[in-house]
Write a structure and sequence with these properties.
The complex is a heterodimer. In chain A, 0% of the residues lie in helices and 48% in strands. Chain A is mainly beta. In chain A, strands 2, 4, 5, 6, 9, 10 and 11 form a seven-stranded mixed beta sheet that branches. In chain A, strands 1-3-8-7 form a four-stranded antiparallel beta sheet, with no helix packed on it. In chain A, a hairpin with a 2-residue loop joins strand 5 and strand 6. Chain B is built from no helices and nine strands. A four-stranded antiparallel beta sheet of chain B has the order 2-7-6-5, with no helix packed on it. Chain B has a three-stranded antiparallel beta sheet with strand order 4-3-8, with no helix packed on it. Chain B is 0% helix and 45% strand. The chains are: A mainly beta, B mainly beta. Chains A and B meet through strand 4, strand 5, strand 9 and strand 10 of A and strand 3 and strand 4 of B.
């Protein structure tokens, strides 16, 4: 298994541009998440999904959109990039079983975004 | 979910056990304690979790006090490769993790 993969690894955007951060997992996990991490800070949840076709807002959803058309993919869309969205973005997934292991999140390598 | 408190940093001696504390005094009976670590610039990595019994795996040991108000992650033989941020999280199991809160964590400084 490749686990959780994210593309691109790094991107520079101009203010007002848009882009999509890609996230794919091959572990058949129902739950998927998008986090952002600012320098020296913890992770903040942007959006999450409990399965294909179902998404919900996390702690900091403003300025972002998501979709979940398949179990494997969970893209994150930035419509009008702003300097405040400069951050590292992590995608994660967790197993579908009804056990404590469901809380075990598997993270991708991250996408570093710089908005100038 | 219960809030956790961890020291921001701590010094550890290379080759010795590193004991990372976590306070979760408001933990409820159905909440598990989870530990993750994040090596610089990488995504967090799951280490271990437990409910009330002590747990051990190939990466670390987890000691939970009898009243469950605190726990300690033990890295048995700290090395420079253990330099990371360690997050202690308490969660009700089987709720999908979508409200997991990753705080600032603890950064152990492993010294030779």
């Amino acid at each position: 298994n490749a686990g959780v993969t994210q593309t691109p690894k790094f991107r520079i955007l101009k203010i007002g541009q848009s882009m999509t951060l890609q996230c794919t997992q091959d572990m058949n996990h129902n739950y998927m998440y998008w986090y952002r991490q600012d320098p020296g800070m913890g992770l903040k949840l942007i959006y999450y999904s409990v399965g294909a076709g179902i998404t919900d807002k996390g702690e900091v959803p403003n300025g972002y959109n998501v979709s979940r058309s398949t179990t494997e993919d969970f893209p994150l869309r930035l419509e009008l990039a702003a300097p405040s969205q400069t951050s590292v973005y992590f995608c994660a997934s967790s197993p579908p079983s009804g056990t404590p292991e469901r809380e075990t999140q598997y993270f991708g390598p991250g996408t570093r975004l710089l908005v100038l | 979910d219960a809030k956790t408190t961890q020291p921001t940093s701590m010094d550890c001696a290379e080759g010795r056990a590193a004991n990372l504390p976590c306070n979760h005094s408001t933990i409820s009976g159905n909440e598990y304690v989870y530990w993750y670590r994040q090596i610089h610039s990488q995504g967090p990595q799951y280490i271990i979790h437990g409910l009330k019994n002590n747990e051990t795996n190939e990466m670390a040991s987890l000691i939970i006090t009898e009243d469950r108000k605190s726990s300690t992650l033990i890295l048995p033989h700290a090395t420079l490769r253990d330099t990371a941020v360690y997050y202690c999280i308490v969660r009700v199991a089987d709720t999908g993790g979508f409200k997991t809160i990753f705080g600032a964590g603890t950064r152990p400084f492993v010294k030779a």
